[in-house]
Amino acid sequence: KMIANRVKNVAVLRAVINSIRPNESFVRELSTTSEKTDTKPMLKDFFGVDEIVSRHRPMIKIGDKVPKKDFETSFVAPNACVIGEVELYDNNTIGYGAVLRGDLSSIFIGGLSSVGDKTVINTVSTLSTGFPAKVIIGHFTTIEAGCTLTSCIVGNLCKVGLGSVIEQGAIMEKESVLLPGSVLSSGSYVKSGEIWGGNPAAFVEKVNYIEKQKFKPEAKKIFASSKIHLNEFNPDNMAFKHSEELAEKGIIV
Fold this sequence. Notes:
The chain is α/β, with parallel strands linked by helices.
């Protein structure tokens, strides 16, 4: 009787899943490649229902501008977008939904620095000041979630608070802090060891000695956490290729 009830429950669950599964023509329209999803067998899940394998690529080249990792120790979330001339130095964390667009100018992310979830880093082609329009993020620097940075420089051991905006041409020297929700206006200059906040951001106070000692451990802690995620994903997110090869051979995983 227990077995019969379990089989019945599985049948009901399968019917529910089939009723909410996406339309196949819609899936083909969403495909990010020229290949059609119906030309190759799909994988089956535990209940025998077709699984749609994401073709999203976290690392995308634009023309001859190719993103690169100096070492294969950085974590780039599977739904992040690292586009164009972007260099990830070492032990970086690029969070879920983050976008790094190095299509107009280059982006450099220093060692053990992190870019939080849904943070967007943009570039422009030129600055009115005549300085390079690239983005440079130093070592042991934390960019928290939901921030927007455009063609700016953030030094070593810095912290950019949750939901902050750094406009083009702005500079933050080492061991400086931008408080959450702040807007650092275009051309602003934050000196070493200063805390700025507000909209538009202005000097608040100096970073004390105790706070300075926290920058590096916090950066290391973020990367240590991301290593757990790193072990769960194929770094190039090309697992669907292997899955399709197995499916062609009739092997259902």
